[in-house]
Amino acid sequence: MTVTRPTIVRLFEGGVILSQLLRIVNVAAHVGPMATALQAPPLQIMIGPVANAMIAIGLALVIARGRMAMARWCLSVVVARDVVGLAGIPVVATMIGIPFAIVSAIAIVLMLAAGVLMWLPAFTAWLAARKEG
């Protein structure tokens, strides 16, 4: 028997995945200017967004598929770190370019939206229903 996940849960999961994929593609598309600005090899530049995606998507799947409410706190830390990163968008726009900064901001806003969704009462009720049966 398959459990149908509510729309809010599917939106949450999709928001996290889309946010992380946007980041990876954005960094890959701008790896040259980033490598120059940071004076680091391109492979080293790609490690950050890929590792971040693995953590964020992994936590999202544990929450959305495994229905483990406690993992929301861990993902909330990742979301909070991203929101703090919004302050650096003007600097990133200067160093790497406005298109990179715009896509980065969109990815952060998607992650923030997913973070809000996972704390809405409907999402919490869905997670709590796991314990009931």
Write the layout of secondary structure elements.
Layout lengths: L6 H23 L1 H8 L3 H23 L6 H15 L3 H7 L2 H20 L3 H12 L1
Question: Keywords, please?
Answer:
133 residues; mainly alpha
What do these coordinates show?
The protein has one domain. With 133 residues, it is mostly helical. Helix 3 crosses helix 4, helix 4 runs antiparallel to helix 6 and helix 5 runs antiparallel to helix 6. The chain contains 7 helices and no strands. Helices cover 81% and strands 0% of the residues. The longest helix is centred in the first third of the chain and has 23 residues.
Q: Tally the beta strands.
A: 0
Which parts are unreliable, with pLDDT below 50 for 5 consecutive residues or more?
A: none
State the secondary-structure class: mainly alpha
The number of helical elements comes to 7
Task: Give the averaged pLDDT, no decimals.
Answer: 94
Work out the oligomeric state of the chains in this entry: single chain
Global morphology? elongated
Secondary-structure element series: HHHHHHH
